[in-house]
Write a structure and sequence with these properties.
- The protein has 138 residues and is an alpha+beta fold.
- The chain is built from 7 helices and 4 strands, in the order E-H-H-E-H-H-E-H-H-E-H.
- It is globular, with a radius of gyration of 14 Å.
- The relative contact order is 0.26.
- The structure holds 2'-deoxyadenosine-5'-diphosphate and magnesium ion (MG).
- The site of 2'-deoxyadenosine-5'-diphosphate has 9 residues, from loops.
Length: 138
């Protein structure tokens, strides 16, 4: 059994897509074992996306992530890291397959509705960033 961190980003919450994203996860048989709404500070967004610090889009990305509330979730299931990435679609919505969250709803490569961890190590780190053990259901 694997876990991953999912985030409904400020554009997803702002467009009223939280229910739709959650519906797609549940419909895919993915278990949600933690959930919270938070508004990141610029410092926290910077820490969360520290791996992208040298990229030209870093300051725009971190400001976007603080522009409104986000919903962080821990997802659980077999192969859930990859399955969540498949439901999300490619980073750039123009390259995302039809029927994916990003293709269906994202406006551009930055405002792309959802985040999903990209591997087991980042998943563990990212889950810890948002949740302690008491906040995760088994
Ligand atoms: P993903 O979110 O699909 O894992 P990533 O980890 O490469 O993609 O990048 C993290 C976020 O940074 C991504 O969701 C949106 C933003 N981003 C990535 N590439 C970008 C680009 N070329 N221009 C603007 N924002 C970008
Ligand atoms: Mg990523």
């Amino acid at each position: 059994m694997e876990r991953t961190l999912s985030i409904i980003k400020p554009d997803g919450v702002g467009k009223g897509l939280a229910g739709e994203v959650i519906r797609r996860l549940e419909q895919a048989g993915i278990k949600i074992c933690a959930m919270k709404m938070v508004r990141l500070t610029l410092d926290h967004a910077g820490m969360f996306y520290a791996v992208h610090r040298e990229r030209p889009f870093y300051s725009s990305l971190t400001e976007f992530m603080t522009s409104g509330p986000i919903i962080a979730m821990v997802l659980e299931g077999e192969n859930v890291i990859q399955r969540n990435r498949e439901l999300m679609g490619a980073t750039n919505p123009k390259e995302a397959l039809p029927g994916t969250i990003r293709r269906d709803f994202a406006s551009d490569v930055e405002k792309n509705i959802v985040h999903g961890s990209d591997g087991p190590e980042t998943a563990a780190q990212e889950i810890k960033f948002f949740f302690n053990d008491l906040e995760i259901q088994h």
